[in-house]
Write a structure and sequence with these properties.
Layout (H helix, E strand, L loop, with lengths): L3 H12 L9 H10 L1 E5 L4 E3 L7 E7 L2 E4 L9 E3 L4 E2 L1 H6 L6 E4 L3 E7 H9 L5 E2 L1 H9 L5 E5 L3 H6 L5 E3 L2 H7 L8 E4 L5 H12 L3 E5 L3
Parallel strand pairs: 9-13, 10-11, 10-12, 12-13
Antiparallel strand pairs: 1-8, 2-7, 3-6, 3-8, 4-5, 4-7
Amino acid sequence: EETDEDENDWMSALLASPLFFNLPPANISRVFSLFERVSLHKGDVVISQGEEGHDFYALIHGKANVVVDGNTDAPIAQLSSGAYFGEDALVSGTPRSATVIMVSDGEVGKLDRENFQSLLQDPVVKFISQEDLGQQLMKRGNRCVLLDVRSAEEFLHAPSPNSRNIPCRDLRANIPGLDQNVTYFISQEGGKRSELAAHLLSQANLKAFVIKNL
């Protein structure tokens, strides 16, 4: 039987995650009210690697493993109450990069793409025009980095002048080494990957803007 304490545990864990750091309080309340709660059993596949992403998930109760390439004997991560997953495919528009399998009975909260974008993505992914970027770069004392998140091969084929290349797939691993006092301007050549990069940097409390023709 679920108790109030159980209910508070997963909510508290989710609220303490980077995804919620910079959200307006009204958005947070709305997210929790819109979660569709789905009961699951041990062995159920929540999302599958390679499929199109339609929903964002939070694990309310139970445990799950994250696996790639069907290697269930060597999960790359283990999830418990309050963990969230599925956001990368929604932000970037790319297929799911891993499979999530329940390893116990449990329950997830599911939020559809439209509500995820309006409540969790749009408030934290910021854009800047070329004109405003030029003004920012001219201001004395501003510490700025131009960031290109395309693959190394794409960057070498068509470099972005004066940009630092960190492929989007490697960005999470590089975030701990990034300077918190720098503003990152992400080139639009990366397409949806640029928006995912801005989303990840924002979660890490880094200032980031996607350069875009507004």
